[in-house]
Amino acid sequence: MGTSVNSYFHLPLWQTINCCNNILWAYNNDHLGELKNHVESKLCKREITEKSNKTIGSRLPSWMSSKANRETVLKAIQILKQKN
Q: The whole model's pTM is what?
């Protein structure tokens, strides 16, 4: 596993944690909140339109959205929030 890097500045992201054999990362606390809201959601709605790939949930990797990983991902998000 390598480090996660900001795609614009090409600098390492500070908010990273190993989770489910992957790296969970966020740009800031707002981003963490959006991730938390998506993962906590018991019912994920997806609209099939040309704009459907613009939501955060449609762009997350499947391991993060998996019901089997929900508790582990939420714990990792909480750890990242406490680091700030």
A: 0.77
